[in-house]
Specification:
Layout: H1 6-9, E1 10-12, H2 13-18, H3 20-30, E2 34-38, E3 41-46, H4 49-73, H5 80-91
Parallel strand pairs: 1-2
Antiparallel strand pairs: 2-3
Length: about 100
């Protein structure tokens, strides 16, 4: 996602009501979020659904990584070779 452009990416809710299609097309074309204002103050953010999905995936990966880092910190690890042997045995995979 490229850097937000204040002149293009900050719009009022009133502007959204009047130019919904134009603003949505802008969000989809640029991949940048549009910040919506109410009474001149930031209120909400419009985001392309594909960009939002990428953010969700990144957040989910970060959660998994945090759990893995906790395991490392608490010395709850084992060599990959040992894991793979047990995995193959449990799944009855030859080799």
């Amino acid at each position: 996602m490229s850097q937000i452009s204040p002149s293009e990416d900050i719009r009022s809710v009133t502007d959204l009501k009047r130019n919904t299609r134009e603003i949505l097309d802008h969000v989809h074309a640029t991949g940048r979020p549009v910040i919506l204002t109410v009474n001149g103050r930031a209120d909400s953010v419009l985001l392309d659904v594909r960009v939002y999905e990428k953010h969700l995936q990144a957040a989910n990966l970060a959660k998994l990584m945090a759990l893995a880092e906790q395991d490392v910190d608490k010395d709850r690890t084992r060599p990959a070779r040992d894991f793979l042997k047990g995995f193959k045995r449990a799944k009855k995979i030859p080799g």
